[in-house]
Design brief:
The chain has 205 residues and is mainly α. The chain folds into two domains: 2-171, no CATH class; 175-205. Helices cover 86% and strands 0% of the residues. It contains eight helices and no strands. The protein has helices at 2-20, 25-35, 43-60, 64-89, 97-130, 132-152, 155-174, 177-204. It starts with a helix and ends with a helix. It comes from Daphnia galeata. This is RETREG1-3/ARL6IP-like N-terminal reticulon-homology domain-containing protein. Keywords: Membrane, Transmembrane, Transmembrane helix. Its main location: membrane.
Length: 205
């Protein structure tokens, strides 16, 4: 019974999210197609765009207050312009069932991501209450490691790598790139071992 209630609650949240971001659906579906690499060349513009933005910011090197102001200015501009552009470009009759399915997948993924983050927060709060020593050691160790990495490695390189990994992750997961790479690697190792044993057996004969 609790599982049924959880599923029902999740479906309600998905429907609520769909209503709230409906004006963004054309943009989100297009972005979703890029992130999951519906075309094999999509990783190149993702990496290229992120690299260009980081290079521009590194070259300009604005102060922190200016950076924060620009960030929120760009966010407000996107929030104002994207829904209006989507409404102007795409007519309701052009919205297909396939697009609706993709939009539902996006909303479901957003809700599941929100649940994952919430569950992790609850887990750490419970860990703090039930096992305070383990909580302290885990938090202290992770913060110490992060501080050491941040001190020894250029912070912009770390941010660049993290952004690239986050943006490439949906495509890697959807196309099972790691599984395919691991399969190819294991096949090559197996073939190498087989060829080596065959040569060794031929020598003994």
């Amino acid at each position: 019974m609790p599982d049924i209630l959880l599923v029902s609650d999740q479906e309600k949240r998905i429907k609520s999210l769909k209503r709230r971001i409906e004006t963004w659906r054309v943009f989100l579906v297009a972005l979703y197609s890029i992130l999951i690499w519906t075309e094999s060349w999509y990783p190149a513009p993702i990496v290229g765009t992120v690299s260009t933005l980081f290079l521009m910011y590194w070259y300009w090197d604005p102060p922190i207050i200016t950076s924060i102001s620009l960030f929120f200015m760009i966010l407000s501009l996107i929030d104002y312009s994207i829904p209006r552009i989507c409404t102007y470009v795409s007519q309701p009759q052009q919205w297909t069932a396939a697009n609706e399915k993709k939009f539902e997948i996006i909303c479901e993924s957003l809700v599941k991501t929100q649940d994952t983050i919430y569950n992790q927060i609850i887990y750490f709060l419970d860990l703090k209450r039930t096992h305070p020593k383990m909580y302290f050691l885990s938090l202290f160790s992770s913060c110490s490691l992060s501080a050491w990495i941040g001190y020894t490695v250029n912070n912009w390189i770390i941010c660049f790598i993290l952004v690239i990994l986050i943006l490439l992750y949906p495509g890697v997961k959807h196309n099972e790139v790691l599984t395919k790479f691991l399969s190819i690697f294991l096949n090559r190792v197996t073939n190498s071992i087989r060829s080596y044993t065959e040569k060794d057996s031929d020598k003994t004969k």
